[in-house]
Amino acid sequence: MTAPTGAGKSAQRPAAFLDRDGVLNVDIAYLHRAEDFFWIEGAMEAVRTLNTAGYLVIVTTNQSGVARGFYDEAAVDALHAWMNEELSRHGAHIDAFYYCPHHPQATVARYARDCSNRKPAPGMLLRAMRELPVRKEGSFAIGDKDSDLEAARRAGIPAYLFKRGNLLTFVEQVLEELGRPVPARS
C-alpha cells in the first residue's frame, strides 16, 4: 500500500498529505493509465514548492478501482512511478504514495472489506506518520472531498478543500495561512 521513495527515518519534517485524483490530476473515473493522466494546473510546481519548503510530500488516495476489478495494484504502482518520473523532469518529487485498494462492496473478494485506511478513516495518514519522519506540527492535508478532510481531522492535522483552479496558487495560500515561508517562484 505504500511506496516510500527516499524519505527514510532521518530528521523529522512536516508533511503535505495530498489526495491524488482531483488535486494532482484531473479526476476521471478509475484512472490507472499514464495516457489518461492530466495534471491539474500548477500541480507539478506545487509539489516542487512543497519540496523546496522542506515538506515531505505524501499522496494518500482511495483506489476502489482495484476492489472493483477495473485494474490491479501493479497498475496503481506503475502510475505512481510514472508520476514521479514526470515530476523529476520538473525538479520535484513525491516522497511516498499510500493507497487503499479496499471497498466494502468490492467485486474482487480479497478487497471486500471496510478498511481503516479507506478515507474518511485516517489509516493512511497515521501509517505514514509512523513509517516516515513526519513531524505532525506544521503538517497538513489537501483534498477535494469531505472524506479527505475528515481523514486529516481524525489524524489531528489541518485540512484544506481544493475545488479547482491552480494548485500552486492554492498551496502558496495554505503555506501563508500556516505562517510558513513561501519559496520564490522559479
Number of strands: 5
- How many structural domains are formed by the residues? 1
Find the CATH topology: Rossmann fold
Helix content: 25-40%
Strand content: 5-15%
Radius of gyration: 15 Å
Mean pLDDT across every amino acid position: 94
* Molecular shape: globular
Measure the end-to-end span: 34 Å
Total count of helical runs of at least 4 residues = 6
Query: What is the CATH first-level class name?
Result: Alpha Beta
Brief account:
The chain has 186 residues and is of the alpha/beta class. It contains 6 helices and 5 strands.
Word description of this protein:
With 186 residues, this protein is of the alpha/beta class. The protein has a single domain (15-177), classed as Rossmann fold (3-Layer(aba) Sandwich). The chain is 32% helix and 12% strand. The protein has 6 helices and 5 strands. It has helices spanning 43-52, 64-67, 73-88, 123-131, 146-155, 167-177, and strands spanning 15-18, 56-62, 96-100, 140-143, 159-161. Helix 1 runs parallel beside helix 6. The longest helix is centred in the middle third of the chain and has 16 residues, at 73-88. The model has no long low-confidence stretch (mean pLDDT 94).
Write the layout of secondary structure elements.
Blueprint: E1 15-18, H1 43-52, E2 56-62, H2 64-67, H3 73-88, E3 96-100, H4 123-131, E4 140-143, H5 146-155, E5 159-161, H6 167-177
Parallel strand pairs: 1-2, 1-4, 2-3, 4-5
Helix pairs in contact: 1-6
List keywords for this structure.
Rossmann fold; five-stranded parallel sheet; 6 helices; globular
